[in-house]
């Protein structure tokens, strides 16, 4: 009887707190929750946290330095001749605060719109592509940057994918020559949700790209918004009915299937939601409602058309949420268990907002660990409110540390057991240790993979891969 009551209470609590229980999972994630293949890959030893911010006009006090490993300055301008300059002002002050905080600062080029149009033009001839690479090196020197991020949204043709590859390869070589092998960070943004370099180019082997860059930053958001036929989350965790492949988990699967190395895959966490104005006669408590086509209002603080940042959502006067999980008057908040995200509907404007909060981001961060990815990326760090979403990123890093510590503790206890044992049991516990130990020596694996990039073997294998790529493109 007691058992039944306890079960019932558990079930009720589970139904009421479906999201919160999963968020707790991140802050309680343990060694046993993580697959052995992830433990042995070494990704949890050096997790990365990339935070995008503006290249200028940002108060360093608004940057969550202690949560980040890399600050990404978006965007430096590129022109058709391949010349790169900061988009305004001098980012030197922000970069020096980053360095004082032990955070690397890298410059991003491209983005949606004119920045990427300019990249496409610069990559269009060998002369301008060469100029682009030289200009990136100059900027890294001039501003003491720690690297660059290519955010090309997006190659339209196979030829442009090849040109992007060539530019990344040349940038890697130029950085290694100018600053020392591996001294500078090179990343690229992965725009497409389906593991392609652009929505209109065929799917191809992504491994030559992940071999030359340090990290691919997956844009695991912008799946649905005012541009879609129905209201749906900015970043659904799972696919929504009728739209296969458009979700956080599907995009990760797609890029891994394309050959992108999980040890270099960083998934994006949006600090904002997207809005749609829905048709009045469609409202029945279901998340997916036909788009009325009316332009939805921007948020009260950021005033971005079609998007509400967490700062907007939590604004004390005009926000939609009066706590991370409680709607303000006029708004109704729901949680969707298919997409593992919250959504809001305003009762008069019929504004729908599909967004991420502490719980949905914790679910995503949890998945990043158990899938064996190497880190998280945030777009954008200044969109937080009172460090609420940053606390999820902090818990992500703590979970990685906790698991690595538990792994080391389990290995040293296995070692002392084997030292204390004798004869045949010593042999069998050694055997057990070495099979566990493939996870156990993950720090050595990590070191090996870092070394790999600089080894001659790595270069030979890389040039083989490059030949394969060259054949693929012919
Ligand atoms: C660069 O030059 C090579 C030959 O050296 C050529 O095959 C390639 O198409 C050129 N790329 C561009 C973007 O002009
Ligand atoms: C990549 O860069 C290296 C070093 O500059 C060069 O030898 C190699 O030919 C390049 N690979 C391709 C496919 O362009
Ligand atoms: C609500 O509307 C959606 C789409 O318009 C429909 O699929 C669903 O069955 C409706 N649900 C209820 C409970 O009426
Ligand atoms: C919308 O919500 C507000 C605040 O809860 C309430 O005063 C108002 O009557 C509601 N309007 C409609 C049309 O339901
Ligand atoms: C972060 O972890 C702490 C416990 O360490 C927990 O109390 C808190 O709810 C977690 N926050 C999130 C957003 O997961
Ligand atoms: C223990 O290991 C040694 C060396 O690997 C081997 O020669 C020996 O046969 C093993 N003994 C048992 C009982 O497995």
Explain what the structure shows.
This protein has a domain at 9-270 and 360-400: Alpha-Beta Barrel (TIM Barrel). The chain is built from 15 helices and 16 strands. Residues 1-20 and 421-474 have low confidence and may be disordered. Strand 11 (321-323) and strand 12 (326-327) form a beta hairpin. Helix content is 43%, strand content 18%. The strands form three sheets. An eight-stranded parallel β-barrel has the order 1-2-4-5-6-7-8-16, surrounded by six helices. A five-stranded antiparallel beta sheet has the order 10-9-15-14-13. Helix 11 (358-370) packs parallel to helix 12. With 474 residues, the protein is an alpha/beta fold. Bound molecules: 2-acetamido-2-deoxy-beta-D-glucopyranose (6 copies). One 2-acetamido-2-deoxy-beta-D-glucopyranose binds next to helix 2, helix 11 and helix 12.
Keyphrases for this structure?
16 strands, 474 residues, 43% helix, disordered C terminus, 8-stranded parallel β-barrel, TIM Barrel, alpha/beta, binds 2-acetamido-2-deoxy-beta-D-glucopyranose, globular, 18% strand, disordered N terminus
Shape: globular
Mean pLDDT value: 86
Q: What name does the CATH topology of the domain at 9-270 and 360-400 carry?
A: TIM Barrel
CATH class of the domain at 9-270 and 360-400: Alpha Beta
What's the number of extended β-strand segments?
A: 16
Biggest sheet strand order reads 1-2-4-5-6-7-8-16
Task: Find the CATH superfamily of the domain at 9-270 and 360-400.
Answer: Glycosidases
Task: Work out the strand percent.
Answer: 15-25%
| Cα radius of gyration in angstroms | 24 Å
Helical residue percent band: 40-55%
Structural class: alpha/beta
Total of DSSP H or I helical runs spanning 4+ residues: 15
User: Ligands in the structure?
Assistant: 2-acetamido-2-deoxy-beta-D-glucopyranose
